[in-house]
Amino acid sequence: MAETKTVFTEENIKDIARILNDAEVNKYQDHWRIKVVNHQEKRQLSVEIYPRAALSEKKQGALVVIYADNSHLQLHGCRGFVVSEELGEVTFVSDAENKLSGLVIEREAACSLYANADKELLSGDFTKLGVEVMLSGVALSLAEDILDKSE
Hints:
21% helix; four-stranded antiparallel sheet; single chain
């Protein structure tokens, strides 16, 4: 089975939880679970981070899973993440060929998924595109350094 480098460490998980309002962290045998709660808006979500999971019969990689009241999201083959103290969010990134996906978790217990975007979006002027595409360009642009370092 093809191996990938470890993306997440115990210290990374602590940093992620800190950005997400010092969210509760539970460590399990093969993953961490971070519970993000927004009491004011009555929202919560759980983020499960698997540093190494079988993604197919031949490939292993990092897996990020979100459980929310009305959704279940997964980001396979996570290559890295960016924490933004200023925005109060963590962006997890995955890529394949010339496509890019990102999962953004906010400290207010909200999340957004941007899937299968062209990598060209990062190097182009996404402000010339429609608002719906521009949002993904802005969100995913935080991850450009991750992709440059790991290629």
